[in-house]
Every structure is written in C-alpha cells, then in structure tokens.
Specification:
Blueprint (H helix, E strand, L loop, with lengths): L7 H19 L14 H20 L2 H18 L9 H26 L10 H5 L3 H10 L4 H12 L4 H8 L3 H19 L3
C-alpha cells in the first residue's frame, strides 16, 4: 500500500475510487474464461476498452476526450501488434498509452487555457455523480485540483487497483517517486478538503 500510515483522506480516496471501480464493474459482463488460445486484438478490445475509457475519464474529466485517448491507444497497439513479444503485455502497453495520451490532452488544454478564458470541464455525467454520496463527490472534485502526476498516481492506485511497481511502469517514474507523489497528493487532498 502506498504510504506508511493510513490517513482519513487516504481511506476516503480509496473508498471513493474503489466505489467507482465497483460501480463500473457492475455494468460489465463477466470476463470471459481464460483459454489457452492466443489473445487477439479483438479480444483485448472487447475485454479492456471500457476499463481504459473509465481510467481516461478520471484523468482527463471528459468522456468524449477519454474515448479519443483510448482509441488512439488501441490504434498504436494495432500498429505495433506484430512487434509485441507477449500478447498479455498488451494490457500494460494500453494502460501506459492511455496515461501518456491523457498527459498530452492535459498539456494541450493548459496551452489552450493560456489563450482563452478558463472553463469548467464536465467531469462525469450527472447520473454518475448522483450515484455518489456527498463525500465521494467532494473527493472526485478535489482530485481535479491536484497536479497531473499526483492525480495519476492516486487514480491508478485506488481506481486502477495497481501496485506501486505497476504505477511506476505506467507513468514512467520510479517506485520511490510513486510513493512520495502519493504521499504529497494525499496531503494536498487533505488541505483541499479542509480535514485534519
């Protein structure tokens, strides 16, 4: 687990993103039985597309943009499918491509905001937020105020349910950086939420 102690904010983030993960998983059909047959790109698309879209939504705050990021990730995977040594590694490739694509979107937004008045992004649908408690809504909103890397680490840890090593691989940083970033992110959330 990230961090040495479990603070109230960390429990809240874990509860909120875990709750979103559970809500999202409830809407999916059960995963297909694992067979000895080789995994195809079509199988991967069917199994992972919506998970990757939800991950991207949490990172970029816009469903249409998240769809575009994921489509680009699958397009890149298609172009490089023949070079993959192991089809099972494709999920990690996709996750990293979604994180990198989300970063690019956020950089472009930042540049665009320098030339236009800032606007409030439509983070999640009204129905999705209505299903969340007030505490969960506050956490999701507070995540939007974190710097990009801090937000990525918390979303990948508590929504993506990834280990520190998997987060480090997906974001291109060391495990130590993942730990310290998570710690700073939780402190920032605590200050933003006004809890102690």
């Amino acid at each position: 687990m990230i961090g040495d102690g479990t603070s109230g904010v960390e429990r809240s983030v874990e509860r909120t993103l875990g709750h979103l993960r559970t809500l999202d998983a409830a809407g999916e059909p059960e995963e297909e039985q694992v067979t000895n047959a080789p995994l195809t790109l079509e199988d991967l698309y069917r199994q992972q597309r919506m998970r990757m879209v939800r991950l991207a939504i949490l990172l970029v705050d816009d469903p249409a943009t998240a769809e575009d990021v994921v489509q680009e990730a699958f397009t890149g995977l298609y172009r490089n499918w023949a070079q993959l040594r192991d089809a099972r590694a494709a999920v990690g490739y996709l996750r990293t491509a979604v994180v990198n694509g989300s970063r690019s979107v956020l950089r472009r937004r930042k540049t665009a905001r320098e030339y236009q008045p800032p606007h409030q992004p439509d983070a999640r649908s009204a129905e999705s937020l209505a299903m969340l408690s007030t505490e969960h809504q506050a956490i999701v909103k507070a995540l939007g105020h974190l710097p990009r890397r801090q937000r990525e680490v918390l979303v990948l840890r508590y929504y993506g349910n990834l280990s520190e090593g998997e987060i480090a691989e997906a974001t291109g940083v060391s495990k130590g950086t993942v730990k310290s970033t998570a710690s700073r992110a939780l402190e920032a959330l605590q200050k933003h939420l006004g809890t102690s």
